Amino acid sequence: MSDRIRRRFAALRAEGRAGLVTFLVAGDPDMATFGRLLAGLPEAGADLLEVGMPFSDPMADGPTIEEGYGRALAAGTRLADVLAAVADFRRRDTSTPLVLMGYYNPIHRYGPERFAADARVAGVDGLIVVDLPPEEDAELRVPAEAAGLHLVRLLTPTTRGGRLARVLEGASGFLYYVSITGITGSRAPDLGEVETALAEIRRHTDLPLAVGFGIREPAQAAALARIADGVVVGSALVRTVAEHLDGRGRPRAGLEAAVLGRVRALAAAIREVRRG
Amino acid sequence: MTATPRPNSYRTGPDERGHFGIYGGRYVAETLMPLVLDLERAWREARADPAFWAEYRALLADYAGRPSPLYPAERLTAELGGARIYLKREDLNHTGSHKINNCLGQILLARRMGKRRVIAETGAGQHGVATATVAARFGMECVIYMGERDMARQRPNVFRMRLLGAQVRPVRTGARTLKDAMNEALRDWVTNVRDTFYLIGSVAGPHPYPAMVRDLQCVIGEETREQILAREGRLPDVLVACVGGGSNAMGLFHPFLDEPEVRLVAVEAAGEGLETGRHAAALTGGAPGVLHGSRSYLLQDEDGQVREPHSISAGLDYPGIGPEHAWLRDLGRIQVVTATDREALRAFEVLGRTEGILPALESAHALAHVLDLAPRLPREALVVVNLSGRGDKDLDTVARVTGVEP
Predict the structure, then answer these.
(1) Where in the sequence is the domain holding A55, given as residue range(s)?
(2) What is the predicted pLDDT for the residue at A276?
(3) How many domains does chain A divide into?
(4) Fewest C-beta atoms under 10 Å: which of A10, B18, B77, B102?
């Protein structure tokens, strides 16, 4: 089993802080720019990388990420290209954990077994598949685990009571807590509600807990860093990409500096928060 | 309600996890999973409750105007010179299509579950109108998601929904048609999990929708069975229905699945022609995939990206198909054929001229196949076509493409 996720969260715990989890869409706005962004993320302070696999119908995402997927697809990004970009990243960085996030159909079409094997070879550590709940995920979880990949489960404000045990059974790597009922990039989470939910989840598992959806600003990230093991920022970074494109969708000078600058600010805010 | 299925029946699906063979299932985000499970539980209880069915039946009779007639289309039969053609007149239902059957059942379920707000996606606007109608009748807040392109081509239905008190929200993503409307409705549901009931209009979506919508549409086939037995003393030879998501077809077919002598023909929209790639024929031109909560046939490229469908009929302009259809197609129980935009328009014209009935462009696809099939069958053969909706909503489209001034 891939060990980078466990080692990274153990190191963060030893440092007494939460980790910054960044989400970017593979191939947005083009593969070359994305490759440079990905390579720059660890140095800018990202502790764990989520890479979005473009999909035509991202039902759980808001307009910002949907448009990012749209740009990546318009640039011709294929699933095989996403894996190639990860492999390229891994040649220079062997320690930063990287998980692919997306929807099931492209994986279904690629073939779950072949995909899991190719993803592992490329250097992927885990998969998050939004529309594959525990009831349906055996068809990917079994080949993923056989290939040594974690299939990361999602927990949400609606995951309560007996369902929590159902989702935790077979969970692996870390847990992704979706902080709101809603789509990515929409409203900000209520800290008190998230804290209550995380406390309840921690009574049932020792897996690290990352929290995402609706987190944009360093101050928000810092507030969540007090209660979570990882803080996920996605739409805010994808929006920064979108803000640095010219009229024809090509990257303007300063795109990479702007995205990585935003990551630095978030990382600095999170690193100021010491956890017991 | 329905008769007990025979052993080795085609009518026992889905299994307890909502699978029809390899199709179906519940491929939804975790936020929705508890809602889907709640809905399944509520539906199981309602389905076993005679009081639920009694109220549903009473509404179908007194509000929707059922039973709908099974009409012998004598002039059409004479013109084609072959099989005797019957039209199942779902176009005569209140709101003008079969969609009301499903909406009445689901709104009763929404009320049982204590929900106060209903949302729906719509393509042609038929399901949107039926949802807005039942929401008004039961005093619930109603939001309808509709692709901007469909709003333009089905304007009368947009106006109807608004008059009925529904909020129609334009969807501007993708090709701005039915698929995009369903994405947006799912986004609403994931955001408003506590008070909202998602009233899906076809035998699609996550379990239990495909089975539930089927159960609520089976009244079409059950009535057809009684009506044809009363009139002809025997079962029909062929049943024909159009399929987008597939609810009118499943409602007609399902009570006949275990009658091996009854041929079941599903007509998909071939748009500008299968060879052009601009079509909406998921079973004919798609491959198994996962979208909108279930596994079924799906129009997609070799990388699993969903392809934009094309059809003159907004109600068939969808890249997927209900999972039970996929299963029955693989088993060989239903036959799948296609009709192009042009063939549907011709059928639209023929039915108006011979029978004085303007069909919905969706239903015109089923008729298009009958124009081809009936002359090749003997005169004693019996063909039933599901006339799933009326064509008033399509007059602008027909005027535009035929160049006839309205």
Answers:
(1) 4-271
(2) 59
(3) 1
(4) A10
Which H or E run contains A177? strand A175-178
Residues 53-82 in A contacting B (C-alpha not used; CB under 8 Å): 54-60, 62-63, 66, 73, 78-79
- Evaluate whether residue A276 is within a structural domain: no
A136 and B174 within 8 Å at the Cβ level: the answer is: no
Min Cα–Cα distance to chain B from A225, Å: 23
Which of B31, B34, B304 is closest, CB to CB, to A110? Answer: B304
Rounded to whole angstroms, the Cα distance separating A157 from A178 reads 7
Q: How do strand A48-52 and strand A150-151 relate by DSSP bridges?
A: unpaired
A209 contacts A231 by C-beta, under 8 angstroms:
no
**Residue A31: inside a domain:** yes
A110: chain B residues, CB-CB within 8 Å: 303-304
User: In this complex, do A105 and B289 lie within 8 Å of one another by their Cβ atoms?
Assistant: yes
Predicted ipTM of the assembly: 0.96
Answer yes or no: are the C-beta atoms of A65 and A25 closer than 8 Å: yes
Closest chain A residue to the Cα of B24, Cα to Cα:
A136
- Predicted local distance difference test score (pLDDT) of residue B174: 85
Give the per-residue pLDDT at B404. Answer: 78
Q: pLDDT value at position B331?
A: 97
Q: Average pLDDT, stretch A215-240?
A: 97
In angstroms, the separation between the Cα of residue A81 and the nearest Cα of chain B is 11
A61 among known catalytic residues: yes
Q: What is the DSSP letter of B94?
A: G
- Asked whether the beta carbons of residue B30 and residue A159 sit closer than 8 angstroms, the reply is yes
Residue A213 included in any domain: yes
pLDDT at B4: 57
Helix (H, G, I), strand (E, B), or coil: what is residue B25? Answer: strand
Query: Which position among A15, A30, A57, A61 bears the catalytic label?
Result: A61
Q: Of B64, B92, B78, nearest to B386 (Cα)?
A: B92
Residue-wise pLDDT tens digits, B93-121: 999 999 999 999 999 999 999 999 999 99
Ranges of chain B with pLDDT below 50: 1
Q: State mean pLDDT over A116-136.
A: 98
CA B227, CA B103: separation in Å to the nearest integer? Answer: 24
Task: For residue range A192-214, list pLDDT tens digits in order.
Answer: 999 999 999 999 999 999 999 99
Q: What is the CATH number of the domain that holds A154?
A: 3.20.20.70
Contact between B139 and B117 under an 8 Å Cβ cutoff? The reply is no
Which residues of B does the annotation mark as catalytic?
99, 121, 388
Amino acid (one-letter) located at B83: A
Count CB-CB contacts under 10 A for residue A71: 21
A159 touches B: beta carbon within 8 Å:
yes
pLDDT single digits (tens) A154-200: 999 999 888 999 999 999 999 999 999 999 988 899 999 999 999 99
Q: Which of residues 182-211 of A touch B (CB under 8 A)?
A: 182-183, 186
Q: Which of B26, B174, B300 lies at the smallest CB-CB distance from A136?
A: B26
Q: Assess if residue A209 is contained within a domain.
A: yes
Instruction: List CB contacts of B400: < 8 A, sequence separation 6 or more.
Output: none
The bridge status of strand B287-291 relative to strand B293-298 is antiparallel
pLDDT for res B5: 55
Cα torsion B280, B286, B291, B292: sign: positive
Alpha helices in B219-322 (DSSP H): 219-232, 247-253, 282-285
- Residues A3-24: pLDDT tens digits? 999 999 999 999 999 999 999 9
